[in-house]
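Hi all, posting the design record for the shared folder.

TITLE: backbone redesign
STEP: 1 of 1
STRUCTURE INPUT:
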């Protein structure tokens, strides 16, 4: 079958139109196939160096209130869990036996006082006779010895009276410090023993309040090495500001100060004990609370940081997706450091000037070509 020239031209146009349409759509499809990612150029900067540790609050002074004399506990004169003042009466022990002992001691004191007065009178009478040699020297020496003995006996009697008075006063158990009381351990009517294992109650002074924590030996050595090499800039080590994060995630409003660091490493735990002191005027912090201690150690110099969302977890390793000069994605194994304000320090595996993908990681597979868009500059 033969076709006319017009039919041949129409057939040629019909056959070539799909190829032309495909050729026209290829650049659009190729452009759409290149994913767009947001990148950040790694640049060195200074970041605060903060160490986060586990701590426990403790009273500035925790005093166990114990009885200094034994006897029957008659009554409790304070409200459990409420603050008390120094010298305030907390318990009353039966004073009757000690009042009787005080009476006996005073009677013995009176006897010794009478003996002393007689010895003084005897010596006063014999002294002029001895001077006139009317009595022997032995009689005079006996009178002097009797007076000295009477003085010693009177002194011993005075001490017994003082001891009995102290024991009577100790039947009133008073608060040795101001603070917050705990629950009563011994109830009224109990027989109180001086050598009892349990105290009557405990008083905690809460303002200021202590926070005890421990620093690992390795962290301490790393920090000292960073100071000596100039990687960390810090003020006087005894003036490190300390903050605490409470159990609900809030940071305590007032900062504290480091006031103690032990001079030895605990061989059982490999840690160094330390303590910080915090103001606690409203007594919101109570002893025994577990907190997170934020210890500000200075400023790290010239370190690389990336946003936390840029880190990809690959089993036990951490990776960053880096865009090369040819816009191809490369996976980098990195070692992470401290987390600071939504960013993480990169200890190794990344160089300054490299472009790190911070958004669009789902489309950025290693070896693929991407269209990088620069993110806003980040502050360290």
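Okay, here is what came back for every position:
SEQUENCE:
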């Amino acid at each position: 079958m033969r076709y006319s020239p017009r039919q041949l031209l129409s057939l040629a146009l019909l056959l070539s139109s799909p190829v032309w349409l495909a050729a026209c759509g290829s650049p659009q499809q190729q452009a759409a196939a290149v994913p767009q990612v947001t990148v950040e150029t790694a640049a060195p900067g200074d970041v605060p160096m903060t160490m986060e540790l586990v701590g426990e609050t403790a009273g500035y002074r925790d005093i166990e209130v114990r009885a200094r004399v034994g006897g029957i506990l008659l009554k409790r004169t304070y409200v459990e869990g409420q603050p008390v003042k120094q010298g305030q009466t907390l318990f009353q022990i039966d004073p009757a036996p000690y009042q009787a002992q005080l009476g006996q001691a005073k009677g013995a004191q009176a006897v010794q006082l009478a003996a002393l007065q007689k010895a003084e009178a005897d010596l006063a009478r014999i002294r002029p006779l001895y001077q006139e040699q009317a009595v022997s020297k032995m009689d005079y020496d006996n009178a002097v010895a009797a007076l000295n003995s009477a003085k010693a006996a009177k002194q011993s009697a005075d001490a017994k009276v003082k001891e009995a008075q102290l024991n009577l006063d100790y039947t009133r158990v008073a608060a040795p410090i101001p603070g917050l009381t705990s629950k009563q351990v011994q109830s009224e009517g109990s027989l109180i023993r001086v050598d009892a294992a349990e105290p009557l109650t405990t008083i905690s002074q809460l303002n200021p309040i202590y926070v005890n924590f421990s620093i690992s030996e390795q962290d301490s050595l790393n920090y000292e090495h960073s100071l000596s090499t100039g990687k960390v800039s810090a003020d006087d080590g005894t003036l490190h500001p300390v903050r605490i994060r409470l159990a609900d995630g809030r940071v305590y409003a007032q900062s504290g100060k480091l006031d103690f660091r032990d001079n030895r490493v605990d061989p059982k735990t490999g840690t160094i004990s330390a303590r910080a002191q915090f103001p606690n005027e409203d007594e919101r912090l109570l002893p025994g609370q577990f907190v997170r201690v934020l210890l500000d150690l200075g400023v790290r110099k010239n370190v690389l940081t990336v946003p936390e969302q840029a880190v990809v977890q690959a089993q036990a390793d951490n990776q960053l997706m880096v865009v090369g000069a040819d816009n191809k994605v490369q996976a980098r194994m990195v070692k992470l450091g401290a987390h600071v304000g939504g960013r993480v320090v990169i200890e190794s595996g990344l160089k300054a000037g490299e472009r790190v993908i911070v958004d669009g990681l789902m489309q950025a597979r290693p070896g693929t070509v991407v269209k990088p868009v620069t993110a806003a500059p980040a502050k360290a």
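COMMENT: DSSP finds four helices and 20 strands in the chain.
Let me know if anyone wants the other runs.
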